[in-house]
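Intended use. Records like the one below are meant for learning the mapping from a protein sequence to its folded structure. Do not use them to infer anything beyond what is encoded.
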Amino acid sequence: MSWEAFRLTSKSPSELMEVMSPNGVDHLIREMLMACWRFLPPEQRNMANWRKHADDVFHRNMRTWRAIKKPNPQAFFENLLPHPEDGFMRQALVLSWMMLPRAGGRVFADVTKIVTSIYQRNLDAWESDNRTFTGTKPKAKKSTKATKSTKKKSSKKTSKRKK
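Structure written out for the chain above:
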């Protein structure tokens, strides 16, 4: 068992919360994103290349995580590539699992939902910061909703006859 597995899996959720704070998983996702940026050669550091690399790391680790049949420390770190970004991503998944309250039972699939949400929130923040510091505007989203017709429908008035 790796030292990461032992360190993260030997503590109770309350101990992890005390040490890592509620922001622990978010912090590890941010570290993963920074490691993805640093991984790129300086001449290739741009948002498109960074996003592709971050998505590759995220999806590779999520595939491995979803393949786990029985949650245990050894399974958490199987097929882990020896890159800092992969280590941070896997630690975020493990920490999320370990911080879930054990009373009442934990659902392993909840980890992917939680981590995906935190990952997406951080991607959005990076995109927003990039727009702020580069002066670029967000790309217009294409509307997929049907548009309402501007024609007014004629209403028929029924008059009551007096007898």
